[in-house]
Amino acid sequence: IVGGQKAKPGNFPWQALTSIHGRGGGALLGDRWILTAAHTLFPKDHNSQLNTSVDVFLGHTNVEEIRKMSNHPIRRVSIHPDYRQHESHNFDGDIALLELENSVTLGPNLLPICLPDNETFYDKGLMGYVSGFGIMEERIAYDLRFVRLPVARREACERWLREKNRNDVFSENMFCAGDPTLKQDACQGDSGGVFAVRDPHSDRWVATGIVSWGIGCSRGYGFYTKLLNYVDWIKKEMGEE
Amino acid sequence: SINIPQKLFGEVTSPLYPKPYPNNFEATTVISVPVGHRVKLVFWHFDVEPSEGCFYDYVKIAADKKSLGRFCGQQDSPLGNPPGRREFVSQGNKMLLTFHTDFSNEENGTVMFYKGFLAYYHAVDLDECAPQPANSVDDAPQPRCQHLCHNYIGGYFCSCHPGYALQKDKHSCQAECSSRLYTEPSGYISSLEYPQPYPPNLQCNYSIRVERGLTLHLKFLEPFEIDDHQQVRCPYDQLQIYANGKMLGEFCGTQKPPDLDTSSNAADLLFFTDESGDSRGWKLRYTTEIIKCPQPKALDEFTIIQDLQSQYQFRDYFIVNCKQGYQLVEGTKALLSFTAVCQDDGTWHRAMPRCKIKDCGQPKDLPNGDFHYTTATGVNTYQAQIQYQCREPYYKMYTRAGISEATRGTFTCTAQGIWKNEQEGEKIPRCLPVCGKPVHPVQQQQR
């Protein structure tokens, strides 16, 4: 997280730390599912085999402590079928679910986050929180950090991408957040974590996006997998849970 | 002698008959008929030289080692001793007819010719059952059979009065009472010849066997009389009574035994007599009564005896249930049902069970939740109640629309011994994770 601050215990109790092809993030859904980005499991420009271990840690804001709290074994990995690992500039479908072998016991430091149910969670300017154990500019993070970012206007992000002559895919299954004028952003190691918005009506925190990609860090907008478009898939994968 | 082949009838004649018989002749004809018959002989023609005392010529008839007469002369003539139409009958199956002639047949110097005789015999059935003549003057006539004699043509046979068996000599009768069996529900049994003196040397066994579930009562009648001795108990004759493998008593004398309740459907009476005595014996009436079992009685207030009867007899049964919420137990074993049957010995085949309050056991643990007793803590018996709760605020109980968590979480120990919820039955509630409700959400004071 660039330009953010250290989170206190219990601020983001859904936050998971993953260690697959490097540091990554995730969010707890229910009591035995981890929502993450597909590219943390199958990174772009990488061998398509998932032949490395998948370690998942939960329940703490300190990297050293969270690792001490033991790894949660994975029963099943589910990658969204639209995800294309070999298309370097296409992060469409960048979503995955990890089913834990055992349910976790919820508590003040370990709680699931909700899923969105309408488009209002993507209104321009709506402030959300992005948390993660990813890098802070050029420094590695030892603690969970977060940054508060606004949902950006889609046209602004498209224009910004055009100006940079990028051919990256900005699909309808993504949204962008941040502001080029601010030195605040998610960064490497935050992928898989969620963009969380507090719903004032229900007083619940809702994950609206998954940290997916960006061009550098804190020099523009960040791009997120738009979770509303994947709620049906998530529900199908999680079954009745 | 001349033996005539054994026949049922025939003729006997003098030699040369009807021509004059020869002089100086003597022959004895042995007439025999089959055994079991006697010989009846009649002279149809008789013409033998008459003489005083039938001294010269004569016909002599004998049977059974006795002479039946000596005969001479002519039929219907006063001279000599003609047999006339007389029938000669033997006792046995043989008759001897001797014909004797002397050297001449003259009368006043004139030679006379006599034709001789023609006799006819036939077998007559011997009534062997008729009283036999005494062997001597002092002896009474000896019957052929000790009890009953049955004559038939050519023979006879003996039989015995009921209770006696014909012996090998086919004449005498021996009391037979070694295996008398009585199976009717009531009846009389008595010593042989009662009330006349019983026979000697008896070894009688009277067995009474009635249906299971009946009990036998014995009642002796007057007179009761079995040889006894003043100093020694029942030394001569004795009546022993057994039931249930035990001797109920040994009786003799003239004092009638008391009425006996055998408490059994089987009894045996053994009656032994010695070689002498003159007592009149005994007689009893046996009756039966159906066996009853004790009235079933509940051991606790929760036991229900179905359709309680005023009395129970052999093969009757009763069924026991428990009041709602109680469980039948036999010892430590729980029963699904209970039936007890009245046995033939008047006991129930199973002891009365008890009814124990149903125990639902420890309630199931609720994952991510807990329960507490709304009735007495730790008591899991019928009508106990618990309330399940989820560990809030992290979990929330899943409920169907319109059902409160309190209702869904209330479980009662039912009469079936199962914890049940009114709406969902045995299924315990689920505690679902609560999403998006951090206890310590991020807060930023600086503006």
Report on the structure:
The complex is a heterodimer of chains A (241) and B (447). By secondary structure, chain A is mostly beta strands. Chain A has helices at 38-41, 63-68, 154-163, 231-238, and strands at residues 5-6, 15-19, 23-29, 33-36, 55-58, 74-79, 96-100, 127-132, 145-150, 174-178, 194-199, 204-214, 221-226. In chain A, the strands form 2 sheets. A 7-stranded antiparallel sheet of chain A has the order 1-9-8-11-12-13-10, covered by helices on one side. Chain B is an all-beta fold. Chain B has one helix at 405-409, and strands at residues 2-3, 9-13, 26-32, 37-48, 58-63, 66-71, 73-74, 87-89, 94-100, 106-107, 110-111, 116-125, 148-152, 155-159, 164-166, 173-175, 180-182, 187-190, 203-209, 214-220, 238-243, 246-251, 260-261, 266-272, 283-290, 292-293, 303-305, 312-313, 317-322, 326-330, 333-335, 338-341, 354-357, 369-373, 385-390, 395-397, 410-413, 419-420, 431-433. In chain B, the strands form 12 sheets. Chain B has a 5-stranded mixed sheet with strand order 1-3-9-5-6, with no helix packed on it. In chain B, strands 2, 4, 7, 8 and 12 form a 5-stranded antiparallel sheet that branches. In chain B, a hairpin with a 2-residue loop joins strand 21 (238-243) and strand 22 (246-251). The radius of gyration of chain B is 53 Å and the shape is rod-shaped.
